[in-house]
Structures are given as structure tokens and as C-alpha cells.
Specification:
- Helix content is 35%, strand content 22%.
- The protein has helices at 25-53, 62-86, 140-145; strands at residues 21-23, 88-90, 107-111, 117-123, 134-136, 153-158, 161-171.
- It folds into 2 domains: 21-90, Orthogonal Bundle (Helix Hairpins), CATH 1.10.287; 93-171, Roll (Chitinase A, domain 3), CATH 3.10.50.30.
- The termini are far apart.
- The chain has a 5-stranded mixed sheet with strand order 5-4-3-7-6. It has a two-stranded parallel sheet with strand order 1-2.
């Protein structure tokens, strides 16, 4: 069995057409900050592993084994962040000129078939958080809402089956 290709490892959610990962300026800044933190953490762990390696028998050295395991985790995350940032397409929703339609970065208020009114903001795959009302641009909900205007009804594929929703409002920062 062949080992997984490095390009496939740690890719996370799929990118959109063109291989780009769309993200807001805030999401891009968060990933850059995490990259800097991981690099600093890696430096500290390398020092611990070097110290532990100098203590002799590595086969029974818990500090050495744990340090090496942690280095692998950090390196995996560093590769992921580096690739993600290299393929990032930063889109500022505040610069959107067509504010009457749903595009990346829009906050959309809609009513579903159960007469519930909900609001979601369409963000990049790395920024999605249901607790904050942020959905990934690659999600079925966002894909159904894209290019819709106020008053439009769209069909969203859900685990319960297709559901019709009506766009009530569209806002951009």
C-alpha cells in the first residue's frame, strides 16, 4: 500500500474552484497568528527534545518520546497552515459592491419552512462556527444562498431532505 501523498495530507475541507481557500481578512490574520505561535512552540519543544536526548537512553526517556510526538503534531499543523495560507484568497466583504445579492461575507437573514427566522454569515471553511452563526462557503446552505436576492426562495439540501428558505435580508460589514 502506498503512503499518502504529502499534498493530500492535512488538507481539511475541500477548496473551491481554482484551488483557492476563500477567507475574510480576520480569518487570514488568525491563521497567520497561529502559524507564528506554532513556530515559537516548535522552537521550545526542540530545546526540550535536545535536552532530553542528552540525558542518555532514549528508549526509556519519557521526555524525549513525548517531545518527538509533540514535534510531529506541530510539524503536521505547520504544513497545513503554510499550504492553506499559500492558497488563501482573502476577500474583504466590506468591499462588496453588489450588496443586493448574497456573496462571500454576507450576513443573510432567512425564514425556513418551520417559520423560524435565522441569520448566518458566509465565511471561509476555516472560519465556520455554528455557535457564532458563521457557515462555510462550501456548505450546502451557503451554496444555495449564493447569488440570491432579497425575497428569493431557494432550496437547500439538508439531512431531512430538501428545504425551501426565503431570503429576508442581506447585510455586509
Amino acid at each position: 500500500m502506498a503512503a499518502p501523498d504529502d499534498d493530500e495530507e492535512d488538507e481539511g475541507p475541500p477548496s473551491l474552484p481554482g484551488g483557492k481557500y476563500y477567507m475574510t481578512p480576520e480569518g487570514h490574520s488568525r491563521l497567520e497568528a497561529e502559524l507564528a505561535d506554532r513556530r515559537a512552540e516548535r522552537h521550545r519543544v526542540v530545546e526540550i527534545v535536545s535536552w532530553a536526548a542528552g540525558n542518555g537512553d532514549r528508549s526509556e526517556n519519557a521526555d524525549y518520546k513525548e517531545g518527538k510526538r509533540r514535534l510531529r503534531e506541530i510539524d503536521r499543523r505547520l504544513r497545513f497552515l503554510t499550504r492553506r495560507l499559500a492558497h488563501a484568497e482573502v476577500v474583504d466583504p466590506a468591499a462588496q459592491t453588489q450588496r443586493d445579492r448574497v456573496f462571500f461575507g454576507a450576513t443573510v437573514t432567512f425564514a425556513n419552512e418551520r417559520d423560524e427566522t435565522l441569520s448566518v454569515t458566509i465565511v471561509g471553511v476555516d472560519e465556520a462556527s455554528m455557535a457564532e452563526g458563521k457557515i462555510s462557503i462550501a456548505s450546502p446552505m451557503a451554496l444555495a444562498l449564493l447569488r440570491a436576492s432579497r425575497g428569493d426562495e431557494v432550496t437547500v439540501r439538508t439531512p431531512r431532505g430538501p428545504e425551501r428558505i426565503e431570503v429576508l435580508e442581506i447585510h455586509y460589514p
